[in-house]
Amino acid sequence: MSTTNTRRSTIESLWEHDAVKILAVFGAIYVTYAAIGLALGYSLDGIVNTLRRMTYLIAVYGMVTLALNLHWGYTGLFNIGIAGFMAIGLYVTMMLAKPADPAGAAQYPGLGLPMIVAVLGGVVAAGIAGLIVAIPALRLRADYFAITTIAFAEIVRLGVTSGALQEFSVLGIELGTGGGRGLTRNYADPMNVIFELEAFSSFVDLTNSLFGFGPTQARALAYSIVLVLVLVGFYWLIQRTSRSPFGRVLKAIREDEEAARSLGKNTDAFKIKVFVLGCALMGLAGILWRFRRTGVTPEAFRPHVTFYIWIALIIGGAGSNTGSVLGSGLFVAVLFEGPRYVRRLVEQVVTVGDAPNTFAQAVAPLLSGNPVPLFEYTFDEFLTLQFVLMGGALILLMHRRPDGLLGHREETAAAISLTKPPDAGGVDAEHGGESS
Predict the structure, then answer these.
(1) Domain annotation covers residue 358
(2) Residue among 129, 149, 151, 125 nearest 138 (CA)
(3) Which of 381, 395, 285 is CA-nearest to residue 339?
(4) φ and ψ at 433, to 5 degrees?
(5) Does a structural domain hold residue 396?
(6) In a domain? residue 39
(7) Which of 105, 158, 350, 356 sits a CA distance of 20 to 30 A from 85?
(8) Is 28 inside any structural domain?
(9) pLDDT for 165-195, tens place per residue?
(10) Which domain holds residue 238?
């Protein structure tokens, strides 16, 4: 019995570590995807490529969710303009990196700056945009602040779509957002710094021998690994921020801003600083999301991107950085990529006929006991039903676990542990006397 209790206590103590939670949940996700693929006879390179794409999405969504947790989970700032700050970071980076004399009439000029400078410029631009929004908007209550941020995100999206910014001049320098057609990447692949290393050639040979990957697939896998490392950096930065004196003030503002102000803290200054930091991180995530692709259009930053991030945060739980990462993983694996994967699995097992054109044509045969047209229609609209699944998952989560998986965990505001020390010398620290 004592051995069982010891084993249970060891498992419980291990589970207290955030890294163990993340590894356990992600391990279960990857094993499940791989097992289903193997059971259906998928090739090894196909399975690894599916897991690679999922890793890429988890890393990107994890970065943005961590930044949103800094706003909402730690400070109580209701930001629903996430897509706008991501768009600013990416568009500014691309305009700074694109050559000043592009080839082809469809190309738009840039400044031709080195990529590292362009990325820093995009991050700074997203942070400045956050400052512009924060200074007037923080005077508003939470709901009005949310309206301001989503309005700003739509202004950004419609602005880069407009013909006025399709090609413009600043101090004699020609730039352009490309309007509705977007921007084409006509600069060198930012990952070439890594791809040209001798070690990367060995990596290509290794992935080719293990999974049958070619150079293009190996590059995509390498970039996903880089994004995971950046996600770790995001996590470390926000963890350190939340445990610092600055972070403890943020938590005090979230719990009771009037009390924090009565203690002499300039809460407006703290909120502006954290909002700018979070927006800069969102801009960086937007850059890493798409700056290696052949092009980008404003449609990539529609409001649903913002709501995806909020769903991930709600799943994991506001106020927990570990919950933000876990929520991103579960959102991508179950609600975002899950329906697509299920559809591919069904296509492997069942032959689905042509779907009816309308919902009425799909439902009418039910009166005669024929459910096949409805099944075909549902299967054809499976990806559209993703939003229904997301809504149903949110309703269930808010009903069963409104705080999310790890939301609102008890966090010590003091810089040192305030737990009762082990009984030393027979002195009861709590009652100031001898322990019984």
Answers:
(1) no
(2) 149
(3) 381
(4) -140, -170
(5) no
(6) no
(7) 105
(8) no
(9) 888 888 778 888 988 888 888 888 888 888 8
(10) 46-301
